Records
---
Amino acid sequence: MSLAGTAELELLRDEPTGGEAVLLETGTEGELADRLLAPLWAEWPWFKYALGVSAMGALALFAALTYTVTTGIGLWGNNIPVAWAFGIINFVWWIGIGHAGTFISAVLLLLEARWRTSINRFAEGMTLFAVVQAGLFPIFHMGRPWFAYWLVPYPSEMGLWPQFRSSLPWDVVAVSTYLTVSLLFWYTGLLPDLAAAAVRAPTPLRRRIYAIFALGWRGDAKHWNDYRATYLILGGLATPLVLSVHTCVSFDFAIAQLPGWHSAIFPPFFVAGAIYSGFAMVVQLMVPARAIFHLQGVVTKNHLDNIGKMLLVTGWIVTYSYLVEIFMAWYGGNPYEMHAILQDRPFGPYWFVFWGVIFCNCVAVQVLWSRRLRTSPVALFVVAGLIQIGMWSERFMLIVTSLHADFLPSSWHIYVPSWIDWTILAGTIGFFLFLFLLFLRFVPFIPISELNEMRREMRARGELNGARGRAFDA
Amino acid sequence: MRSGILAEFDSADALARAYERLAASGYRRLTSWTPYAVRSVLRAEPRSPVPRWMLVGGLLGGAFGYLVQWWCNAVDYPIDVGGRPLHSAPAFIPITFESAVLAASLTGFFALLARCGLPRLSHPLFAIDDFDRVAIDRFWMGVDDADPRFDEGVAGELERLGALRCTRLWPSEGDAR
């Protein structure tokens, strides 16, 4: 094992253009494994405070939901015509965030983009916990969540079945499938690393717990053979799945006749927006984790650079979609569409939401044309924060401005969220961070086995010296 | 592999070299245990059947999803919505697709576990001192004594090929497949 040494470090530096390789860690395979497992055994003095703060958010969420269920859905700001408000905005926002995780772990797996390897576990964890938050909203938005099981086709004594010609039952199946498949994909990928954690855990109890979750994985060649085939096909299945889930979500809107919703561009527009906000969330989670756990050798500037480019690409798809929406409203000539999109959105009562969306999603992201800003963690973090706000506001714009003023002026109504709405939104962020912190604390969040395999292959092909330096190659 | 000789290596390259050498000299029943997939060694394995099972699982799942929708909405509980067809195939596509993906993924995951014989927390191999480092940075290779080419001298050969140590696994110690 002669990976150690400064000569190797020289080789690992990449690209004549001055960028960094996807992997800068040197040392033996055992050292890399220990390096990546170290956060699990280290003391984190700040952990209890961070966990405590996020737990308070989670408790606020549970309290607000309990209050809603015991008192009634009227506590939310929803009214008629704005029957879908925070409940659906937050649902679409959270599920969209989840999509970048699947994009990174599945789509980039199929494209053999190596920079995916360091961050895929992390992003998959984000997906799982984001989908958990998303799933809460439709259930509580029903008002009587204890009847949520009515959405499932089961032989009831009432002889009733769900109506599958409506788009809402599609969502139920899409989201529950998405959660299940993401969980299977994540856990399959984790098996070898849990086995590694079981070897290195400092106490017998922890060794035992990790060993149980590793299911007795021992790296037999026969196992690897089936494992690789299964993992690849799971990635292949997750790829169309991630597109289909947000397509189903967009059908909730596109299939309705409401001005501003009834549009054929919605499925690709929603998927691009989802991946946009999800990559922003990856940045917001990864940049602090990278600094706290000193992971600059594994999550290198090359990763930041690539994510910045993904943000630019998806940001432009989103911008293009806005332009097409505006153009089609004018070109279609339908007075209701023209009113909703050309008048009400930019100049109506929610004008600040529209212009906020344009600033956050279309303008702010343009600073990422600069490589220096793309590879600066702070700049990327700030831009990602604006994108998060922008994408949440975009869903607010799509849902609330379309609903509050439809065809008949007599049925128009202003919507104002209640403090319960805000508490629930903030609470899901707390609950998400709570789950994510536990994940960071107890699960090997950078794939060890995959990174060691990738490094060996890169070395064998002589690619560690950056012969193929372009972003998506690396 | 039930019994035979096990050799420990400290790198994937050393393991791959030894594996290649023994395979070239006629050994057919070789096994390996590694912390990550070593492609050159895996090439000797037959093609995994799991993807085909996933295809079958997915097709069955999709068909089931479609049938449930058709039976619910067109047969058992027909509702006329503005004269639209009760059996409206386009509206059934999303759920059919999702059911196919769900069934294929569940098939894949459980087929993987079944093929690997997992969960199996206790295994005779783990009785070997430090065998568990196979999850971190040790590479093990096994030569089955049922191999027609097998003789005990292979241990010496493996050590010449760079093995750190060799261990004899006896049949009474259990099934190490």
Note: Chain A has one domain: 6-151+164-460.
---
Amino acid sequence: MDLDLNVRKDGDHSVLEVAGEIDVYTAPKLREQLIELVSDGSYHIVVDLEKVDFLDSTGLGVLVGGLKRVRNHDGSLQLVCTQEKILKIFRITGLTKVFPIHSSVSEAISSAPAE
Amino acid sequence: MDAVAGVGPATVRLAFPPEPRLLGTVRLVVGIVARKAGMGAEGIEDLKVAVSETCAVAVGDLTRAGRQDPIEIDLVETPDRFGIEVRDRAPTPARDAAGPDQPEVDDRELGLALVGALVDDLKTATLEGGGNRTSFWLRRDPLDPGGLGPHPLDPLEPGGLDVRPPDPDLPPPLT
């Protein structure tokens, strides 16, 4: 399964919908998308992981890299995820303390600081 | 070779070239074999993450070393546990070498943390002549029914993955 990415604007936020499997093969595509968003001036990003079937450590690294980039611009990167198998990955690695994780895009946007 | 795993005779043995694009296929096959062995959904997901992380390290090491040696995976079913052993022929120094394309985060440390948290009896060792062996087990949920029958998906995909029963002429796994 490949990785599908879709970006849309919602006010001051960019919502990045991710579908498929994020692993060492597909993670570079996600990294490039996050870099492009920040380069284009999107500093408040919501990454929707609801359609992600698999996430590995490479994918986690890409998300952490994205978080560092937006923070360099006083921005935010929030996640949307309710799948237990994906949440488990964040919990094991301690990244639930790093990323705000929400149950819906609207919840993420309402809690994120806007520009 | 060093004795590490003690996982016993393989139920299924896979071999695939060190190409990242094949990791998804490996996960698919591992998931199907584990499902047919009666593993529960959570255990299957844990196994898929653990084997994918282990194989990703091997793929990276072999790629950096310019090697195309196949990565071998033994899947072992016992009445109460499911075991996996991954073997690669990456030169030992590659495991400690800094690659030219360093990630922003140490994916390997995250990966090792994941594998260690998800499985039981994680063991790693260096193989004589170069290479690495990683093995681990996952206990079968006692509530899981034994064997759920055939999966509708065909595990075979074109592109180099070799799925075959263990060769009876091969030496037995090391214990």
Note: The CA atoms of residues 64 and 99 of chain B lie 7 Å apart.
---
Amino acid sequence: MSISEKTAAVVRRPRWLRVVGALALVSTAATVWLGLWVTPPDAVQKNLVRLVYLHPPIAWVALYLAFGLSALASLLYLWRRTRSMFWDRLAASSVEVGVVFNALTLATGMIWGRPTWGVWWTWDARLTSTALLLVLFLGYLALRRVPADPEVRARRCAVAALVAFVDVPIVHFSVIWWQTLHQGATVLNANLSPTIHGSMAWTLLLGFIALTLVFVWMVGVRYQIEVLADRTGAERLEVSLAERWAEGELESPSAGGNGHGNGTTGSPVRPPTRVGQ
Amino acid sequence: MSYVDAGYSIGLGVLFLYAVGLFLRRRSLERAVELSPPPGPIQGPTETGSASGP
Amino acid sequence: MWRDALLVAGKDLRIELRSRVALWQVLPVAVLSLVLYAFALGPARHTLAAAAPGLFWLAVLFSTVLATQRSFAIESGEGTRDGLRVSGIDPAGVFLGKAAAVAAELAVLQVVLWAAMTLLFGVHVHTAWLAIVASFLATIGLATAGTLYGALSAGLRVRETLLPLLVLPVLAPVLLAASRAWSGALTGPVSSGESWLRILGPFAAVYLVVGIVLYGPLLETA
């Protein structure tokens, strides 16, 4: 799919992104094939072990890769020497994709937990801190949607991301302690990692690689969307200002083509000549 | 449907749907950029063609 | 920085003393919430006594959100924030000052809540030092994190709904640790309550530092 010059001026479609996307697709398909059909069932967990090819990789992407990247990018944005909208957009993209992976971590974790523990939800350390992390970063997304000047928004969100990220180890430790002190927890904290060997180990590794590639690709596309959205947002603002100016002209009784808009709000912004004149 | 199947379907399904969503968002934004007027500087009153009226 | 902090804290507290919003609004809501908890959980003494530490800190948590919103609402007048920025006051000082003011309000709140809780839930503090130290650390953590997020959402029209969403998840560990600590101080084994100080302390320290470092960049945006 080719894109016009105008769009290309805004955002490039780099080849590496397409390559990553293709690799992501292939490796994910390979993981699924190996995970569901080729590898043997575990001695203890039987077929449930197949979820280990998905759940830990998804969790790794969500918790470490996505949010780690967003914290790093936020830091780099805030630090004057490296400040650039690139980091802000990267952080935002990483958070959004991270939230998706985070939700999936919870979903796959619950699906694994149900037959293992008999319950859909338990307040075990990992599930709880993952759930809290999800809410933390949903907050970031909510903050991002508040309309503001891009640089203002960028700084606000960068601080929010860092503050949230700093909370993560604290949450992690406190919830672990919470569970160890709570007597009933030991049963439910059963170690879910089976002893991995042979084809299972390779499949697990492939799973990590595959989902990392998926993440990279998704962040890449999401970044492009961010660039495009900023651009069309800016243009939409111009167009709507122009429209409002034109409307003001039409409504004002003294509108004799007087370009100074004495009936309007007196805003110093005038549309470019191409609009309606 | 076994738990494993459910896990894989939901995991991969959501990722796939999100990916499709990304594609669609990018395409609609690219169209918006295509259709939008070329960017021009925001001009002051003196540069507006009809400043002096008929 | 410290002098600026005292200046700002003094200003905020003086405004509070004059307007008494925290006194007449935040405090009553907190006490009211204790009553509502009883409505929700039933009047059985043992239920309430068992839940008391958690309920206490829930009330404090929600009051923190209110107090922080208030702390930034007083500056929402035209140009107040710009005035603060241009006046050359060290932003870290502003942060410390505002956080200190919020912390002071929270401290007063906790004393009243503790009295109310003793009355309404029939609980007694057995190990006072643990309760006090836990409160001290937790309050610092709540005030600093709250002020940081308050600044972040200041001036936004959606502030009322956004601030809780942003700040409550971050404060969750404080809720957890402080409740467990107070549980140790009220009834349970002191040693287990004590161990939770090891969460409260670092949390307070971390957010104190983070606030000092990040408040400057944040103020620039206002």
Note: The mean pLDDT of chain B is 74.
